[in-house]
Amino acid sequence: MSHCRPWLSLSVHFNPLLGGGATLFIGTLLIWELQKNDSFSTEVSIGVVFAGSVAIGAALTPKEDLVDAFFGKFEPISGFTFVIGVLTVALIVSFIFRYKSALILNCFRPELAAATASNSIR
């Protein structure tokens, strides 16, 4: 298949965007109900609903569309696109190596990073 199609929504003649909005609303209500129980935190509630949604989606989606949805479709790229990609990756990696101490400090100790403004990323 050339692309992942919302076959379930289309098979019942229902707008896929409205179906997605409805399921998002239902998921929000489920998370809200799970949070009412004191033994579930927000993170656990979101994880349970997300894992259940992925499982239901995987069960209802045809295998060909599922592989495309998870991994994308591999298409040939031009030499220019490849060079741009390599340059972008090189810039990102060099940024991370150059600012790794400041990044770690900002992620794990933001108050210390704010106190030592010389180590912050600017």
Give a verbal description of the structure.
- This protein has 122 residues and is mostly helical.
- Helices cover 73% and strands 0% of the residues.
- The protein contains 7 helices and no strands.
- The protein is flat, with a radius of gyration of 22 Å.
- The N and C termini lie far apart (46 Å).
- The relative contact order is 0.08.
- The mean pLDDT is 78.
Tell me the β content.
Answer: under 5%
Percent helix among the residues?
Answer: over 70%
Please write the string of helix (H) and strand (E) elements: HHHHHHH
| Global shape | flat
Q: Please tell me how large the radius of gyration is.
A: 22 Å
Mean pLDDT score: 78
Total number of β-strand segments?
A: 0
Question: Which structural class should the secondary elements be placed in?
Answer: mainly alpha
Pick out the low-confidence regions.
none
**Total count of helical runs of at least 4 residues:** 7
The rounded distance between the terminal residues' Cα atoms is 46 Å
The main sheet comes to: none
Which descriptors apply to this entry?
single chain; 122 residues; mainly alpha; 73% helix
Task: Give the structure's gist in a few sentences.
The chain is built from 7 helices and no strands. By secondary structure, the protein is an all-alpha fold.
Give me the secondary-structure topology:
Layout lengths: L6 H5 L4 H21 L5 H19 L2 H9 L7 H20 L1 H9 L1 H6 L7
